[in-house]
Design goal:
The protein is built from ten helices and 16 strands. It is an alpha/beta fold. The chain has two domains: 273 residues, Aminopeptidase, CATH 3.40.630; 111 residues, 2-Layer Sandwich (Alpha-Beta Plaits), CATH 3.30.70.360. The chain binds zinc ion (ZN) (2 copies).
Length: 391
């Protein structure tokens, strides 16, 4: 069985790579994936046996309903690109100025098309249903494509879902798994410190929002350093600090925006309260006022233990023990988390880096490149794991 499936995957390698390069050449950003969706839709129709629909403007769903009843297993691929000008010298580099598949979602689409194509030839043997979710807008919050597709009903009846991400920090030939929390919730904060403007030479007649803002930024780091259990992971980063117009005018206010990353729901509730306590304390100490908004982003990706166990077994059987790498959680985010609210699920990393070939640039970098052999590895894991989950 393993040999047969792997043979089928290898036999469509050229086609999968062709799809991936076509998509790489023609990237579209979140919510604009019109041509991408059209390409996926029409390619899926050529496979036969599939029920193909367009549940959202740019999302695509394909259902392969087996001849015998059974479980419903879903596989998800995201499909959006990023607003980045590509700087690689690849022959199939983006032809769309200022837009690039710099996260590898082109590979995700191509893999899932390949998986669907092979499974279509096995309909007689499938007990249950395989559902292929091509999701738009992973890179854009709110609300993100996953939430919209769920609203449109794509998860109805699904027993388990798996998703993978080609991952350059992981070398080619490796599959990265994590039991439990894997990716963080990316919540944003928007803070206005309201002081009193005036002449830079007469500071005593002002309430210096810049100085108070600077103290807030420094004090926020007490949360991670002194309020959080050292065995828990939290990130608080101030990424925007804006205030003032010129060198001798004290502004009325400054704007301080940042991101909060947590890996469990308790800390997700706690950290904004600690943040506000510091903001309230520092501003009131200096007679300033503030306005604070915390906006919740995607949920945390917390892998279901039973599904990860299936993936672990699959990796060991299909690629060997040496391919398996247990990876530490990432403070990045993924809206795959939304599907996990509806069914047991697991997300995993497909090694796509290759130091020898120079595929070392991080995700979202203008020189981002992957080793295309990752597509074959990913397809094999998806297919073998899906078969195990159906059983
Ligand atoms: Zn990304
Ligand atoms: Zn991504």
């Amino acid at each position: 069985m393993i040999g047969d499936l792997n043979f089928l995957v290898d036999s469509i390698k050229d086609q999968v790579i062709f799809w991936r390069r076509h998509l790489h050449r023609n990237p579209e950003v979140s919510y604009q994936e019109r041509e991408t969706a059209r390409f996926i839709y029409h390619t899926l129709l050529t496979f036969g046996n599939l029920e193909v629909t367009r549940p959202t403007k740019t999302g695509v769903l394909a259902r392969l309903i087996g001849k015998k009843p059974g479980k419903v297993i879903a596989i998800r691929a995201d499909m959006d690109a990023l607003p980045i000008q590509e700087e690689t010298t690849l022959a199939y580099a983006s032809q769309n100025p200022g837009v690039m598949h710099a996260c590898g979602h082109d590979a995700h689409i191509a893999m899932l098309l390949g998986v669907a194509k092979i499974f279509c030839g096995m309909q007689e043997d499938i007990k249950g249903e395989l559902r292929f979710i091509f999701q738009h807008a992973e890179e854009s919050f709110p609300p993100g494509g996953a939430e919209e597709l769920i609203q449109a009903g794509v998860m109805e009846g699904v027993d388990a879902i798996i998703g993978g991400h080609v991952w350059v920090p992981l070398e080619i030939g490796k599959i990265g798994l994590t039991y439990g929390p894997m990716m963080a919730s990316p919540d944003s904060f928007y803070l206005t410190i309201k002081g009193k403007g005036g002449h830079g030479a007469i500071p005593h007649q002002t309430i210096d929002a810049i100085l108070i803002g600077a103290e807030v930024v420094v004090n926020l780091q007490h949360i991670v350093a002194r309020n959080i259990d050292p065995f828990d992971q939290v990130v608080i980063s101030v990424c925007r600090f804006v205030g003032g117009t010129t060198n001798n005018i004290m502004p009325n206010q400054v704007q301080i925006d940042g991101t909060i990353r947590t890996l469990n729901s308790k800390l997700r509730q706690e950290v904004p309260l600690l943040l506000e306590r510091i903001v309230r304390g520092v501003t009131s100490a200096h007679g300033a006022d503030y306005d604070l908004k915390v906006i919740q982003g995607y949920g945390q990706v917390i892998n279901d233990e039973r599904v990860v166990r299936v993936l672990e077994k699959t990796v060991r059987e299909v690629m060997g023990d040496a391919a398996l790498e247990f990876v530490r959680p990432s403070m990045g985010a993924e809206d795959f988390s939304a599907y996990m609210q509806k069914a047991s699920g697991a997300f995993f990393f497909i090694g796509g880096g290759n130091k020898e070939k120079g595929y070392v640039y991080p995700h979202h970098h203008p020189c981002f490149m992957i080793d295309e052999d990752a597509l074959l590895n990913g397809m094999k894991i998806f297919m073998h794991a899906a078969i195990k989950l159906l059983a």
